Amino acid sequence: MFGNLSLKGGSQEQGMSSFQALATAIAAQVGTGNVIGASGAILTGGPGAILAQTAFGTVFGESLGAAFVAICLFFFAFSTILGWNMFGKINVIYLFGEKNAKISTRIYTVIALAFIFLGTMMSNDLVWELTDAFNYLMVIPNAIALFALTGMVKTSLSEVEKKKK
Length: 165
What we know:
Blueprint: H1 18-39, H2 48-60, H3 62-96, H4 101-121, H5 124-137, H6 139-148, H7 150-164
């Protein structure tokens, strides 16, 4: 649907640009927020999915609203898994090279499927705690890269300032 659109006005081969992904996510959030606000479900409160089910239940009826939210959550979870899997495969190919791409991506897929299966068997709280922990751990290599690239940034900044003068 969005594959040929581009922020720069041209078209791209496939996929969605970062801006398109952001705009789609914002539209989904705003739409859900509007339904929650308009339905009055915000007065009842509750955690995310329950609040959304209450809101859509007042609009579509209780059972259809719950089914709608469940289907939306399924597609959200499925597309998230597909997106992160693709992102992981691209990085595995980068790390282990094009020559080893077939075997390395198969190993990555098996490991990813094992973790997806384990994630479905664990309690929700544990899955979210592990997700948060691994997201926090991503700060370490990013911070190291920032410090390692400081010299390059300073050099680039001085070159830009020289061009301005």
